[in-house]
Amino acid sequence: MGERRGRAAEQPLYARVRHELTQLVLSRSLDDTSALPTEPRLMEMFDVSRGTLRRAIDDLVREGLLSAEQGRGTFVDQEERVRRVVWERLKHVAIPDSRFDRDLREFVPDFFGSDDAARRVTSLEEWKTASRVFCAPDNSVESLRYEALVAGKSVLVPTYGLRRGFVHLDGAVLSKSDLRHAASLDGMESYGTTLGPGDLRRFGTVELIVTGATAATTDGRHIGGGQRYLALEWAMLEQLGLVSADVPVVALVHECQLVDEVVEADHDCLIDFIATNSRMINVWGSSPSVNNKVPHTLRRIV
Question: What is the residue range of 69's domain?
């Protein structure tokens, strides 16, 4: 075996194998769901022992990129692979965050061209007629939170990680001079009303959902950062009867976050419209009516 190749390296041999295995995984087509090569084949490819290979694989299983199924082989987690591919693309257009810099595992970034995407959303009839809007606490959605307040809409925004519940902002009562700061994650709690899960009924029925995403597929799947906050928020609202499968869902993403491949992955909800820096995609057809989409039973929380 070639274990001696790692002796002069600054990093442990298993770490090199983990890196090379990660690159192998990310280089595969996103719709490739086949198992990785067998252990003997991978040992030969990387010129390492079984123990070194398994340590590298175990690391990637803990990170969520791989899953090992006894008797079947080692498989790639498609959602995590999509995230990592998109994060690499986003580095070139993402706007750093004051808290997390460019650590895209921690937040959904704003991006160059998001104002163009926001303008496309405000031209939708679904936006114009909605008086109560759920806006995700994503950096990319801040301009839409502002536009919603300018239009006098009621806006419901989860706090980061739901640590302090939700914030209700009422654009009809806020001073115009305060709207910009109120739309920001740093300022919203100073101008809005904090609502716990038991208080959400005071907001009323949600008529539109606007969210960012780590990635979105052109067939309408939302892929978040892995924490599944949107799924939790949706479940709370659904349990209280404040949201239904008919509510339009709009995702704001950069073109580089779009994935054309059909990714067999769990998702928070199905997207009706995808607004990017260069176009608007009506997922379910040319008509703006959300009744043209696939059966509502496909919109599920996992």
Answer: 3-76
> Which amino acid is residue 140, in one-letter code?
S
Based on the structure, what is the number of domains in the chain? 2
Range list of H helices, the chain: 13-27, 39-46, 50-63, 78-90, 114-122, 125-129, 142-150, 179-182, 188-191, 229-239
Residue 86 lies in a domain: no
Q: What is the pLDDT along the chain (302 residues), one digit of tens a residue?
A: 454 444 445 678 989 999 999 999 999 887 788 899 999 999 999 999 999 999 999 999 999 999 988 888 899 988 899 999 999 999 999 988 867 667 777 788 889 999 999 999 999 999 999 999 999 999 999 999 999 999 999 999 999 888 899 999 999 999 999 999 999 999 999 999 999 988 999 999 999 999 999 999 998 989 987 677 888 899 899 999 999 889 999 999 999 999 986 665 555 578 999 999 999 999 987 444 444 444 333 343 33
**pTM exceeds 0.85 for this model:** no
Q: How many residues does the chain have?
A: 302
Say whether both 216 and 117 belong to one domain: yes
